[in-house]
């Protein structure tokens, strides 16, 4: 978060006021910049190491796990995701507060809102786990972090689409309707390429065919990019909101 100096006359004013749209874009750009930087550096300087697999067949793209396990890519990714994770927790809390205001009188939807919050938190924890424990350090921990991230990401997107389907029925706000439509599209896109990626990964391990792992890596990129785009729909959901950093209110002096 940004910080600023303040004088005694401005004690009751916000230190920072940031439009939520800028906040959302900046959060996603941190992860996107880190991902692109790691892949490009891996291709330019560590091509053989990042594209090598146990099959020893031609491969032209590194998987995300391979590209973020090398140096300096590892530290670039950790830096970007470390900064990216704190706002993600804040956004999860903002969505839960939003849902609580909409579904306070509907127990089933309120229960789904709680589950959406837990899934969002677990998704972020899984991302941190796979980030700070690379596949070359402790593979089982990295693998479990990836599984947690992928599973909770899909669960979070599914529940979010269900909740926004309810919101859309009672909303005349064009931003909310646009947000719902893009959430559904990105969720279906994400699920489709998750399945295709799983197919290519299994086929690669079973038959060791050339190029197949490259296709898996490409699908993996699309899965992650669609996940980022899904989170970017907060741009519409909180477009008129601001993120503020303030000082605690002081007791009045008489």
UniProtKB/TrEMBL annotation:
GO biological process: GPI anchor biosynthetic process
Classification via Pfam families: Frag1
Cell compartment(s), UniProt: Golgi apparatus membrane
Residues annotated as transmembrane: 20-45, 75-98, 110-133, 145-164, 184-201, 213-236
Entry membrane topology: Multi-pass membrane protein
Principal location class: Golgi
Similarity comment: family membership: Belongs to the PGAP2 family.
Name the record gives this protein: Acyltransferase PGAP2
Species this protein is from: Salmo trutta
Encoding gene (name): PGAP2
């Amino acid at each position: 978060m940004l910080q600023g100096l303040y004088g005694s006359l401005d004690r009751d004013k916000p230190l920072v006021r940031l439009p939520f749209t800028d906040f959302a874009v900046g959060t996603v750009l941190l992860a996107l910049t880190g991902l692109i930087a790691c892949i490009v550096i891996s291709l330019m300087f560590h091509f053989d190491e990042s594209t090598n697999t146990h099959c020893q067949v031609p491969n032209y793209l590194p998987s995300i796990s391979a590209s973020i396990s090398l140096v300096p890519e590892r530290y670039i990714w950790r830096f970007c995701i470390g900064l990216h994770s704190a706002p993600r927790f804040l956004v999860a809390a903002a969505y839960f507060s939003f849902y609580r205001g909409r579904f306070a009188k509907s127990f089933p939807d309120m229960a789904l809102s709680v589950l959406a919050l837990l899934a969002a938190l677990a998704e972020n924890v899984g991302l941190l786990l796979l980030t700070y424990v690379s596949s070359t350090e402790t593979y089982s921990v990295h693998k479990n972090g990836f599984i947690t991230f992928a599973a909770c990401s899909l669960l979070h997107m599914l529940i979010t689409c269900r909740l926004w389907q309810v919101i859309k029925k009672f909303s005349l706000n064009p931003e909310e309707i646009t947000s719902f439509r893009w959430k559904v599209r990105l969720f279906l896109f994400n699920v489709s390429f998750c399945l295709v990626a799983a197919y290519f990964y299994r086929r690669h391990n079973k038959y060791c065919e050339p190029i197949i792992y490259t296709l898996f890596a490409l699908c993996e990129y699309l899965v992650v990019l669609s996940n980022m785009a899904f989170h970017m729909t907060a741009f519409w959901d909180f477009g008129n909101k601001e993120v503020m950093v303030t000082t605690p209110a002081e007791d009045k002096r008489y």
